Amino acid sequence: MNYHEFLGAVQHRCEMATTQQAVSATRATLETLAARITEGQATDMAAQLPQELGIYLADAQPKPERFSAQEFLERVAEREEVDLPQAVYHARVVLEVLGEALTAPEFEHLQAQLPDEYAALFEAGSEGELDLG
Fold first, then answer.
1. Which domains are assigned to the chain?
2. What is the C-alpha to C-alpha distance for residues 118 and 132, in angstroms, rounded to an integer?
């Protein structure tokens, strides 16, 4: 999946008016994800993404921060500068598209690095119900 296809999928599924909104949602989600996963996982994911998206994972650390799925969503909202319900939906869509862009083993490695409570973010996708417990 190339850069424009990724952003186009995010923009279409989120029903965003502009590509810039899709960039903002994607950047906020991937940068927040980078804070939560290991540097090695971020590097592996970035290698499978277009360079323009991989740079959002560049700040991952050898020892990731520990924060809940709820805090993940709050951080996405803050980075994206939208309200929490919008950020929740945008993050779900970005993660759904990310799952389509990465190979299945790489996406499974990503999910395995996160606590079980994050599973709802991946399972809900863009159309399912989200229940963080």
1. 3-124 (1.10.490.110)
2. 8
Distance CA 130, CA 92 (A): 9
Per the listing, tokens 């399972």 go with 123
The length of the chain in residues reads 133
**φ, ψ dihedrals at 89, nearest 5°:** -65, -45
Please enumerate in sequence order all residues whose Cβ is within 8 A of that of 32, keeping only pairs 6 or more positions apart, or say none. 72, 75, 76, 79, 91
The string of pLDDT tens digits covering residues 33-80 is 999 999 999 999 999 999 999 999 988 888 889 999 999 999 999 999
Find out whether 120 and 131 touch, Cβ atoms under 8 Å: yes
